[in-house]
Design goal:
- The chain folds into 2 domains: about 150 residues, NAD(P)-binding Rossmann-like Domain (Rossmann fold, 3-Layer(aba) Sandwich); about 100 residues, ProC C-terminal domain-like (ProC C-terminal domain-like fold, Orthogonal Bundle), CATH 1.10.3730.
- It has an 8-stranded mixed beta sheet, with helices on both faces.
- The chain has 12 helices and 8 strands.
- The longest helix has 22 residues.
- The protein starts with a strand and ends with a helix.
- α7 packs across α12.
- The protein is an alpha/beta fold and about 260 residues long.
- Bound molecules: NADP nicotinamide-adenine-dinucleotide phosphate.
- The site of NADP nicotinamide-adenine-dinucleotide phosphate has 25 residues, from α1 and α4.
Length: about 260
């Protein structure tokens, strides 16, 4: 049974810990400077530990502290990072090369960027491997697959994927917020507005996933000549919606690049 450790059981670390426990195939250690954060994963079967105990005992160490705490945390566990261990960092904007540098030797480093949808086990989890971690992809995919789709990407694509899959839920929640506002303006109750909005997005997402059809094909199935959908879509076209969306994503990507450079 592989032994996995999660350092930092805040928003993201605790969700990853729960997903890993739910697979039932790993022994999990958890650590956090705030011991109360360990209550839930421990209740589910994880073993509480200090950072160094965790690093010593785990085959795979998941670093889920805020980016500004990454260096000090690696410094603390560095003497336990033997070549057989894998260090997986989820810290936004910190490259595998930077982590390799802090951890000293030839540590196998994997960088993973889960999005918030892992909370409902429908996340996107792109990852890349560092210089000494070429063979770690399969295990990474195995560990995180209970939380959504895990896929390998070249590290140079991380700013783009951060803008699309990392910030994407925020953009869709913004669209949802506006659909709800329109519903309320048209006299629907709050409860009705929330249900309409949630099921619109949930159902459309489920259609995309379960039919496997392209968005354009699904769009065609609800767009008849002279119909209501076409009338609405024409407004998107007139207002150049594709251009707005591209600007939104380009802007998020630019910000990701700026933040990475500052670290
Ligand atoms: N949240 C997301 O949606 C998301 C998405 C993708 C990637 N990430 C990445 O995930 C990482 C964690 O983000 P988060 O939102 O989960 O942060 P968070 O809620 O602040 O969780 C981090 C936890 O680690 C603890 N901690 C700090 N230093 C530590 C140390 N030396 N040893 C052990 N525990 C320590 C923190 O305690 P204190 O609060 O006392 O510092 C906190 O409980 C970040 O690097 C972020 O970039 C987050």
């Amino acid at each position: 049974m592989k032994k996995i450790g999660v350092i930092g059981c805040g928003n993201m670390g605790s969700v990853l810990a729960e997903g890993i426990i739910s697979a039932g195939r790993y022994r999990l250690y958890v650590s956090d400077v705030k011991r109360e954060k360990l209550k839930k994963p421990v209740k589910l079967g994880a073993q509480p530990a200090s950072n160094t105990e965790l690093a010593e005992n785990s085959d795979v160490i998941i670093l889920a502290v805020k980016p500004d705490k990454v260096v000090e945390t690696i410094e603390e566990i560095k003497s336990f990072l033997t070549p057989s261990k894998i260090l997986i960092s989820i810290a936004a904007g910190i490259s595998t090369a930077a982590i390799e540098k802090v951890s000293g030797g030839k540590t196998s480093v994997v960088r993973l960027m889960p999005n918030v949808n892992v909370r409902v086990k429908a996340g996107l989890l792109p990852y890349c491997t560092g210089r000494y971690a070429a063979g770690c992809g399969k295990l990474t995919e195995q560990i995180f697959s209970p939380l959504g789709i895990v896929f390998k990407l070249p590290e140079k694509k991380f700013d783009s994927v951060t803008a699309i899959s990392g910030s994407g839920p925020g953009f869709l929640f913004y669209i949802a917020e506006n659909i709800s506002a329109v519903c309320r303006r048209k006299g629907f109750t709050d409860k009705q507005s929330r249900a309409i909005t949630a099921y619109l997005l949930y159902g459309a997402g489920k259609m995309l996933v379960e039919t496997g059809l392209a968005p354009e094909t699904l769009k065609q199935t609800v767009t008849s000549p002279g119909g209501t959908t076409l009338a609405g879509l024409n407004v998107f076209k007139q207002k150049n919606f594709p251009h707005i969306l591209k600007k939104v994503i380009d802007s998020a990507e630019k910000r990701s690049r700026e933040l990475s450079r500052r670290k």
